[in-house]
């Protein structure tokens, strides 16, 4: 991946939230205080946040780079390349967290099915409570269908919020990228600026020049997976067989990860990590858009899982056989002009605040130095008086 790799901004956000406002020597103190008093940040991923901060703290290479980087470099994203080393670990941790949430959701839905099915299958409510400790205010003795519905709604809302935050993070990423580009142009003379603009337009054209992208979840898209990934004859395409082939854990559902895996072939038409014009952060946003679209079309009960029945019903719809064309990211601006303007104003305000803080700190430093000089002068005067007194006392004795 290039420097704009996946979840780099998530790492940078954590970095900035900790290091932008806390002196380097005070970071460990803050973390120790959080741990000592068990302070909850209020974030859904509070424990994950602590783990990542702790990881960054222990990474000697990263700490050395951090100590040799000033705030302006951090603001301009120059430190982000150093996050390449840790970004894989961050992505792995975040993906694992997401998988755990999906697995918890699957557990709840299975328990609900057992209760509704009237199969006299006992539901281990204590085991469920252990998985959902943050909801342990519920009835500690029994679980009813209504209780499970409440838990399912809570789990799905967590996942929805996760997706919303990813969209917002991507929007901020795109705006920052454009801001950095414009700031770079300001440093160039007319000829260099013209060359840079021409190169930028050329890269946009190269990125947009790709094979047609199939509508996610359509017959054509799934047949392409059937043929190229599964190595089967497209004429023999069978939705039920396809579902069973790609339900990798065999639980009778497509979860979010299993759905997203179906779009890899489509994404490879648009994105190549070796190409300058292709941004892998944008690829992950496209993957998310595709998955959300298919979920909205197919997941009829909105439990964020696609059952075999839901999938088969969807394959009989007109949208499956004759879908609209799919508009990729380059055809949809991630932000409006007003949002970009607000973002620029926010950055300007942040810079102004930082400059004011730097000015205030410099004033405090100057005042401390003045007071120190005054104190030193007073000490010298006092020492001179003492010396004179000693000389006088010696003269009297003689």
TrEMBL record:
Residues 234-269, 286-321 form the EF-hand domain. It is found in: Cytoplasm; Golgi apparatus; Membrane; Secreted. Keywords: Calcium, Coiled coil, Cytoplasm, DNA-binding, Golgi apparatus, Guanine-nucleotide releasing factor, Membrane, Metal-binding, Phosphoprotein, Repeat, Secreted, Signal. Residues 1-20 form the signal peptide. The lineage of its organism: Eukaryota, Metazoa, Chordata, Craniata, Vertebrata. This is EF-hand domain-containing protein. The keyword Lipid biosynthesis does not apply. GO terms for molecular function: calcium ion binding; DNA binding; guanyl-nucleotide exchange factor activity. Residues 178-204 have a biased composition (Basic and acidic residues). One of its GO terms (cellular component) is membrane. InterPro entries: EF-hand-dom_pair (IPR011992), EF_Hand_1_Ca_BS (IPR018247), EF_hand_dom (IPR002048), NUCB1_N (IPR057576), Nucleobindin (IPR040250). The keyword Phosphoprotein applies. It is a peripheral membrane protein. Residues 347-388 form a coiled coil. Belongs to the nucleobindin family. Residues 178-218 are annotated as: Disordered.
